[in-house]
Each structure stands twice: as C-alpha cells, then as structure tokens.
Amino acid sequence: MQEELLQFKLQEVWTLVELPNEKRAIGTKWVFSNKKDERGIVIKNKARLVAQRYTQEKGIDYDEVFAPIARIKAITLFLAYASFKDFVVYHMDVKRAFLYGKIEEEVYVCQPPGFEDPDFPDRVYKVENTLYGLHQALKAWYKTLSTYLLDNRSASEAEGRWIFISQEKYMNEILNKFGFSDVKTARTPMETQKALLKDADREDVDENLYRSMIGLLMYLTSSRPDIMFEVCACARFQVNPKVLHLHAVKRIFRYLKGQPKLSLWYPKDSPFDLVAYTDSDYARASLDRKSTTGGCQFLGCRLISWQCKKQTVVANSTTEAEYIAASNCCGQVLWIQNQLLDYGYNFMQTKIHIDNESTICIVKNPVFHSKTKHIEIRHHFIRDSNEKKLIQMIKIHTDQNVADLLTKAFDVSRFQYLIASIGMLNL
Asked: Sorting pLDDT into bands at 50, 70 and 90, what band is 63?
C-alpha cells in the first residue's frame, strides 16, 4: 500500500485540496491480489487504490464510457493507417502510455482509507492523472496512447516505406525461459496427422507449467497469426494435460525457434480498401465435434485483425458452420468500419470472401430461412448488414481463402503459401 501511494506521489497523480462548493468527492477503496509464478507459488502481494466506480453517475461524474483496455485490433488498425499515410511509429511503449493519462476535467476523490492526512482530514484529492476506477481514466488512456503514437513517428524517406510488427524480443525471452534456445527447429507449428485427443491413459504433465506456456504463447499471437490456430487448439487441454499435449506445445516453440523474425508487414504502397475472409473447419474438434471459426480482415494487403475460435454449438452441416463463421467475420467488419469513421473513412459494401456458395445464398435470399430455423437468431444479423449494403458476400476458391490458416494445421508448402498471403515476412 505504501508503494502504491509512493508511485502516486512520484507520478503526480493528485493534489490535496479543499473540496470546492457544489462538488462532491468520489470514494476510494483498496484492492488486494497475489501474483503467482508458473508453479502457483505466491511471489508478490499487490495493493491497488481504485476509485469506487458504482458511486459515479453519468452526466455528473462522467459523460462518456470507454472500453477498459485497448484492443490489439485498434493498435494494428492505427499502424495500418500510419503506413498508408507514410509515417512510421517507432519505440512504441504501450504500457507507459497507458499508465499516465491526463485527466482534463475536475475530479475529486476521497483520501485513501487508512492513510488520511492527520493535519487535513477533511480535504480531498484533485485527480491530475489517471486513477483506476474513474470513468474519465479510460478516455484519458486512449487519448494519451493516440498522442504518444502520433508524436513518435517519422516521415523520412529512409523510414517511411513500411512498418513491421514484431514481438521478437518477447519471443526470445520465452524461448530462453523454457529451454528452447538451442533445439531442433520445426517447419510448421503442428503436425497434420496427429489429432489432439484427451488421451486419458497417457502420463500426466505439470498443469502449472503447461498453463504458463499456453498463456505466454497466447500473448504472442497478438503479432503472430501463424500460430493462432495451434495455440488455441492446445489451450483446450489446460485441465489435466497429457504428454501428447505438452509435445504439441513444444512443437510450437520449436517452430518459433526456426522463425524468430517472421513479422507482419505493412507496406506503404498498398490500397486502403477494407476486405475480409472467412472460413470454418467443420466438426474437427476432437472432444465435442464442434467446428472452428476462422476470419481475417485487411486494409489493402495489411492484416489488421484475425480470429480463431471454436464455435459454441455443434453445427449440423458445413453450410451452418460457414454461416456462423461469416456472421462472426461480419461483426468484426462492422467494428472496423465504425473505427475507421474516426480516421475519416466511410466504408460500405465491404467484401467478405467465403468459399461456400450455400452460405452466400442464405445471406442473400430470405427464402432459405425455413432451412435455417435451427441456427441461433444472433447469427442472422449478417442478413440485415447485407440488406443495408454494409457488406457483400463474395465467392472465392478454397485455395485462395487465407482464413483457412486459422482453422486447421497444414503441410509445409500450403502453410508457407498462407503466411505469405497474409503479409508475413522475415525481417
């Protein structure tokens, strides 16, 4: 608790003042948590002082509500826009940008419980920088991040030709942590012939170790869509993992060891049109026969968003599985369209490429509704988006559907073709 308040002082988070007339102070509270290592052993006790969110009223204490965290899609979207506008963002420390956001409104909070100033017990703190729990803090974080990105850019001829998105330093750290800095490499992240099963008769492995490896890999998928499907597939076995599952995870690490510099590439001379691809892998999940949704969205040839997720229901046909995947992709497209309005671009009739003709017929023709009554209603909003001309469904051959990368494992030649198609190159 003392360390938390010391940081507030160093960062000039607040100032002790008299509460002005017609103003009220927002309550504060302490939140405690334990930080554990991969073995589940507590290594640090943490205390955080936060504002009481439930005491704040819209229109009095705040006007707008922002998401509590930045979506990686928002950052990649900005970088794609940056490459199109011919400037490069460099040395992007997102964590630092988020910690210190300036509060522009007059916000007052009560003194921390147990740490009231004995000389001025009736005074309150005027918040200067962000404080967890304040609705204004979220807006301040986003503004600070945007300002930081725009200020840390260069438009010189030498640097303004492309942008690479890479987590190479982080990847090297996790390779060293688990002893994969000197191992035989693999050319793909998963074998195509060995399905991941429960394998109840095989030997158990350390759950904490397995979950730690999965968690670190999940963070890496923020810039490495080439391992997205494989990591998600292995993540399904975090309860009682077996040797088979650990070997699958180790293969992902061996693949990363062989491709340490593979990164997303955003070229300058690419169109700025929004396109999307969607696909599904029908009933391939070994445990429950559910299908896998895959989707990716591009600005020109710049990959800005990608998804891999096991569907929540068992699809009765390939068409149903593809329709559910297309609806998920449509939702991502609508979110991106809304974000691009902030950049002054109004995209209509965004092309969503799919390799299933029946799904396109269902989206375009309401006569097919009688054949889709068993599909959950929430997936049918894609029809409404099609009628409003927000999207248009385009048939594409399976070989050219790059969303296939996010639905299954492949042999070397097909895998290399797909990662090149989504704009991944070695630095």
From this structure: confident
In this structure, the number of other CB atoms found within 10 A of the CB of residue 327 comes to: 23
Task: List pLDDT tens digits, range 160-186.
Answer: 767 888 888 899 999 999 999 899 999
What's this model's pTM, rounded to 2 decimal places? 0.79
Phi first, then psi, for residue 131 (nearest 5°) are -135, 130
Share of the chain above pLDDT 90, in %: 48
Phi, psi of 202 (to 5 degrees): -85, 170
Cβ–Cβ under 8 Å, residues 235 and 309: no
Q: Rounded CA gap, 1 and 129, in Å?
A: 19
The 3-class SS string of the chain reads CHHHHHHHHHCCCEEEECCCCCCCCECEEEEEEEEECCCCCEEEEEEEEEECHHHCCECCCECCCCCCCCCHHHHHHHHHHHHHCCCEECCCCHHHHHHCCECCCCCEECCCCCCCCCCCCCCEEEECECCCCCHHHHHHHHHHHHHHHHHCEECCCCCCCEEEECCHHHHHHHHHHCCCCCCCCCCCCCCCCCCCCCCCCCCECCHHHHHHHHHHHHHHCCCCHHHHHHHHHHHCCCCCCEHHHHHHHHHHHHHHHHCCCEEEEEECCCCCCEEEEEEEECCCCCCCCCCEEEEEEEECCEEEEEEEEECCCCCCCHHHHHHHHHHHHHHHHHHHHHHHHHHCCCCCCEEEEECCHHHHHHHHCHHHHHHHCCCCHHHHHHHHHHHCCCEEEEECCHHHCHHHHHCCCCCHHHHHHHHHHCCEEEC
Q: Give the other-Cβ count within 10 Å of 156's Cβ.
A: 10
Q: What is the pLDDT of residues 308-348, one digit of tens each?
A: 999 988 888 898 899 999 999 999 999 999 988 878 889 99
Angle in degrees, CA 361, 367, 372, rounded to 5: 75
What is the spatial distance between Cα 206 and Cα 210, in angstroms, rounded to a whole number? 6
CB 87 within 8 A of CB 78: no
Please tell me the predicted confidence (pLDDT) of residue 152. 59
pLDDT per residue over 71-99, tens digit each?
Answer: 778 778 877 887 787 665 544 444 444 55
Answer for the pair 287, 198: CB distance below 8 angstroms, yes or no.
yes
Residue written as token pair 């061996």: 254
